[in-house]
Design brief:
The complex is a heterodimer of chains A (about 375) and B (about 290).
Chain A lengths: L4 H10 L7 E4 L2 H11 L3 E6 L11 E4 L2 H12 L2 E2 L2 E2 L2 E6 L3 E12 L4 E7 L6 H7 L4 E6 L7 H10 L7 H17 L2 E12 L4 E3 L2 E5 L8 H4 L9 H9 L2 E4 L4 E5 L2 H13 L6 E4 L6 H12 L6 E8 L4 H15 L5 E7 L2 H9 L4 E2 L3 H18 L1
Parallel strand pairs in A: 14-16, 16-17, 17-18
Antiparallel strand pairs in A: 1-6, 2-3, 2-6, 4-5, 7-8, 7-10, 8-9, 10-11, 10-12, 13-15
Helix pairs in contact in A: 2-3, 5-6, 9-13, 10-11, 11-12
Chain B lengths: L9 E5 L4 H13 L2 E6 L7 E2 L2 E4 L2 H8 L3 E4 L3 H13 L4 E4 L6 H14 L2 E3 L5 E4 L3 E4 L8 E8 L3 H12 L4 E6 L10 H10 L5 E7 L4 H9 L6 E6 L23 H10 L11 H10 L1
Parallel strand pairs in B: 1-2, 1-5, 2-4, 5-6, 6-7, 10-11, 10-12, 12-13
Antiparallel strand pairs in B: 3-4, 8-9, 8-11
Classes of the chains: A alpha+beta (about 375), B alpha/beta (about 290).
Chain lengths: ~375, ~290
């Protein structure tokens, strides 16, 4: 789960990491007032859950409250990568002497958290990794020990931080780790971590991603969940608790098991079809969940056919069939449905569907081929 | 022959009295797995499906000689269940639970490593060494004993491949579901090491998907392995930045694409199936060589 910059800064500030003075505004007037209170040069920053805000013109440096109000007005009217800007963060501009990069994230291969520090701050870290990887210092963190001050100092030394800055960097890194752990983050990133002319460190920008699996124990954070999806269908699926990803094709997909569903998408594309979505109903789904899933897929106006691929372990093919039949009856569907059912109660499932317009398929390949051809012929006929 | 588990493995089911625990314990017993105990705190002294239930894993180990635990415990309590098993000197844990926080697994995995306890999963279908030991949720009827080792990040996709292999007369030594999470208890390369040392495993079928670099790391080891490996990688059509069901199935920062995994594996000579139904012929070709 992504959270906004201002929310991430709030969490970091709680751990004692210095952040710019500032406040969030939902209107241009509010923004102007905040700028007046802050005084001097301020930055007006779009608060949207995507990167590339600067390039999109969503970050503006202004010198007067009037300019702040006008800039906020512009930014609040923007859509950045499909997401509407509903809030702006108005904060004091930093007097930048140099910029660091600091983050804590999961190193999947090492199965540890890793602290990353670089003097190449203010740039896309992936670019730094690609062009000057020697500028990036890393330290894996033993979960039983945590990020201790001596480790943070070693990291600072490794990153080429001048000795007089080690103390400040060490405090920020340790606090960053505390914030990361306390909030069940999978990423806590400060870029840039600004060093001012006076030698103070300030987190000029902050990004945190919270582990979805931990939201059950991060109730306050879970409440911050907004529609990070730019797609209303994905937002709806989230509300229904369905694992759903919108794609841009016309063949709706429903299956049980993420790997099987991903494979179904691949096989459909290989057969010349274009998947409209990924949807995993998980294991043991009852017919009402199947109905909800089909309903979800059919909400997409692009969908011209639906492919259902089930390999039942704990999932019962007859339950899936019942869900399908009720959906077809309720919606009086006239688009083609192809179904490949294998596994638990496959005979009962197939028998239930025998009288219906559902097109059966004996294999994943056959199902994908049939679906692709049926949708193609419908498109041609239209 | 097999790896990790065999016909004699004594299994304790943590969460045996829950809905999933009940259903799958019944299936495991029917398959022939030696489920010798169950654990549900507070239900000690009772019995279910002919299996004694204990309050703690330690009692199950002491009273019934339990060696491997199968964990059907909800995400909020799963880390505790795993740590309890490690502490009770269990030698291996099969964790089916989906939704365990990554930080829990990072912590748990560290203690498991120190204790020398292996963890298969979480968020996986389990492990089986046919013909008589299955631990987890893979339907027993899909297996037949034979020379093919399977290691997979998927659940039902593994079933699909199993069905294809068994139908083609290509039986399995051990099938290991390492699960779909970002930080699994055991990685591909670790399972490959075990298969390499298993005299009865003549070829390994690896089923991967987008996200992480587990397949790429495995490829480096495959380079020097004697046992041939064939693979299928799901998610060729997955868009970047979107989690495709599994917690670990996400292409981020351009890393973890199916294309990169396929390229890494092909570079070390691993035949890649375009679709699951091609797996049997690739496996057969390796066996015939």
């Amino acid at each position: 789960m992504k959270i906004h910059e201002y929310q991430a800064k709030g969490l970091l500030a709680r751990q004692g990491i210095p952040v710019p003075q500032g406040q969030v505004a939902a209107s241009a007037t509010e923004a102007g007032q905040i700028a007046r209170t802050l005084g001097g040069r301020v930055v007006v920053k779009a608060q949207v859950l995507v990167g590339g805000r600067g390039k999109a013109g969503g970050i503006k440096v202004v010198d007067t409250p009037e300019a702040a109000e006008s800039a906020a007005g512009e930014v609040l009217a923007m859509r950045i990568k499909g997401l509407p800007v509903r809030k702006v963060l108005v904060e004091q501009a930093c007097d930048i002497a140099s910029e660091y990069y600091a983050s804590i994230t999961v190193d999947r291969a090492a199965r540890r958290n890793v602290a990353i520090l670089s003097r190449a701050g203010g740039i896309d870290i992936e670019e730094v990794a690609a062009t000057t990887p020697e500028m990036i210092a890393k330290a894996h963190i033993d979960p039983a020990v945590g990020l201790r001050p001596y480790m943070a100092r070693a990291l600072a030394a490794d990153a080429g931080v001048p000795r007089e800055q080690w103390g400040r960097i060490e405090r920020v890194l340790c606090a960053l780790y505390e914030a990361y752990i306390a909030n069940d983050a999978s990423l806590a990133e400060i870029n840039p971590l600004v060093m001012t002319a006076e030698g103070a460190l300030i987190a000029a920008d902050a990004k945190m991603i919270i582990d979805d699996n931990a939201l059950f124990r991060q109730k306050a954070l879970a409440e911050l969940r907004e529609e990070e999806e730019d797609d209303p269908l994905e937002a709806e699926a989230h509300r229904r608790g369905l694992a759903y990803v919108r794609l841009d094709g016309d063949i709706g997909i429903v299956g049980n098991g993420a790997g099987l569903v991903m494979t179904t998408l691949d096989v459909v594309q290989r057969a010349g079809g274009r998947p409209a979505n990924f949807l995993d109903i998980g294991g043991g789904a009852r017919s009402d969940l199947v109905e909800s899933a089909l309903d979800m897929v059919l909400t997409d106006p692009n969908v011209r056919g639906v492919l259902v691929v089930i390999f039942g372990g704990i999932t019962r093919c007859d339950e899936v069939a019942r869900g399908l039949i009720r959906t077809m009856a309720e919606r009086k569907l006239d688009l083609p449905i192809v179904v490949h059912l294998t596994g638990t109660r496959e005979e009962e499932g197939r028998a239930l569907l025998a009288g219906s317009p559902v097109v059966p398929a004996d294999s994943l390949e056959e199902a994908a081929d049939k679906m692709a051809r049926l949708v193609e012929s419908r498109t041609q006929a239209a | 022959m097999s790896i990790l588990v065999d016909a004699d493995t004594r299994v304790v089911v943590q969460g045996i009295t829950g809905r999933e625990g009940q259903f799958h314990t019944e299936q495991m017993l029917a398959y022939g797995t030696k489920v010798v105990a169950g654990v549900t705190p507070g239900k000690g002294g009772t019995e279910t499906l002919g299996v004694p239930v204990y309050d703690s894993v330690l009692e199950a180990v002491r009273q019934q000689g339990a060696e491997v635990s199968c964990v059907f415990v909800p995400p909020a309590f799963a880390a505790d269940a795993i740590l309890e098993a490690i502490d009770a000197q269990i030698i291996g844990i099969v964790c089916i639970t989906e939704g365990i926080p990554t930080s829990d697994m990072i912590r748990v995995q560290r203690f498991a490593r120190e204790a020398g306890t292996w963890i298969i999963g979480p968020n996986g279908p389990g492990i089986a060494s046919p013909p008589s030991c299955k631990i987890g949720i893979i339907p027993g009827r899909l297996f037949t004993p034979g020379p093919v080792g399977i290691v997979s990040r998927s659940g039902t996709l593994t079933y699909e491949v199993l069905a294809e292999l068994s139908a083609g007369g290509l039986g399995q030594s051990t099938c290991v579901g390492i699960g779909g999470d970002a930080v699994p208890g055991t990685q591909f390369v670790e399972v490959l090491e075990l298969f390499e040392d298993d005299p009865k495993t003549e070829v390994v079928a690896l089923i991967g998907e987008i996200g992480g670099a587990d397949e790429e790391i495995a490829a480096e080891r495959i380079r020097t392995m004697k046992t041939p490996v064939v693979a299928f990688i799901a998610g060729k059509t997955a868009p970047p930045g979107k989690r495709m069901g599994h917690a670990g199935a996400i292409i981020s920062g351009g890393q973890g694409t199916a294309a990169s995994k396929i390229a890494a594996l092909e570079a070390v000579g691993v035949p890649i199936a375009e679709i699951p139904s091609q797996m049997p012929s690739l496996v057969r070709a390796c066996l015939e060589r």
